[in-house]
């Protein structure tokens, strides 16, 4: 609870600092607030406290909260000169991101369906505004409108599913719903089953899984790049944590019922995400479609439920988050210099900016799942989780799709190191260097020694 309170208070302090024109204080205040929240996260480890019967700060919630806070902190370090060029009122950017983070902490800690909905909406409303915050940019306006309409549509599915589950079980509490499912003296109500499917659809919208992914490319492309970074990393991590808490724990007794539609969603997500990313000429749009494919890999953790499912998702989410932060950070630098984000903008980048190009190379290798990177460990754990019986066919299908991913990730590497271009020299602020170094270090450390977080939960 202290984590949410700290983040919320920080958001209000930053907002008032903006009103008093204290622009230089915004980033330091935010960093201090997030570090304090991270300290509360560490202090609560193994506490397993329950707050008002609505939230539970167990190790699952704390581990994912830690990833979300660290990811957000790194993204804030990328704000140097970025928000200043977009608006004079930059405090609203900071405040909305912090409120979105507070909503995400609720999503990974909920113990009651009502808290899941509240957290989801706090996060979503903040993101709707952030996506369209560039009022004079038509692409940003379009992104916000599409995100709002599709978000409202998916919320309807989620609420209808919650309503049916409440009607069948008589409770919003996760423990009571689970007890209802395992009670042998009661027959499960027929309305419970469509409730589960509707909740699956609603959460698939939020994480960008196919065929509920149509909003993702346009919203990611039209939003400010730093907001896209936030949505495709931290937001996705929180969404999967909420998905996993509900289906791996509460709905586990009905696994045989909902695993079939889930496998269909996994296959569609992998195929559509990878094949469509293959034909993109825009780096930012490619990252948007590749994020769809990564949603498919993350859903592997639910195809076969095991004691390691939660840890596997944590490793994969961390690997994807930090590699994507590197990719978007370099994209921001390149776009500020060249004015566009096509693959050609990266031509010759390695000759004038070897360290930046090396960081992006590590990120692309991790996203592709090459050994000695965190991405390889994440994919390996996901594939290992579903091996056996008919699931071997699913793993073979996923590996074929991963091979497709090699092509579009390596396009960037080839452009940087083997193609001639303008050989632009990037101006890399110190904060960007810090973010790149930290993210590369985490990516390589998790790839070489994943045991650091492998058994964390």
From TrEMBL:
The chain crosses the membrane at residues 25-45, 60-78, 90-108, 114-133, 145-166, 191-214, 226-246, 258-279, 286-307, 313-334, 355-378, 390-410, 434-454. Residues 112-401 form the NADH:quinone oxidoreductase/Mrp antiporter transmembrane domain. It holds the Pfam family Proton_antipo_M. Keywords: Cell membrane, Membrane, NAD, Quinone, Translocase, Transmembrane, Transmembrane helix, Transport. InterPro entries: NADH-Q_OxRdtase_suN/2, ND/Mrp_TM. It catalyses: a quinone + NADH + 5 H(+)(in) = a quinol + NAD(+) + 4 H(+)(out). It is a multi-pass membrane protein. It is an enzyme of class 7 (translocase). Its EC number is 7.1.1.-. It is found in: Cell membrane; Endomembrane system; Membrane. NCBIfam families: NDH_I_N. NDH-1 shuttles electrons from NADH, via FMN and iron-sulfur (Fe-S) centers, to quinones in the respiratory chain. The immediate electron acceptor for the enzyme in this species is believed to be a menaquinone. Couples the redox reaction to proton translocation (for every two electrons transferred, four hydrogen ions are translocated across the cytoplasmic membrane), and thus conserves the redox energy in a proton gradient. NDH-1 is composed of 14 different subunits. Subunits NuoA, H, J, K, L, M, N constitute the membrane sector of the complex. Belongs to the complex I subunit 2 family. This is NADH-quinone oxidoreductase subunit N. The lineage of its organism: Bacteria, Pseudomonadati, Bacteroidota, Sphingobacteriia, Sphingobacteriales.
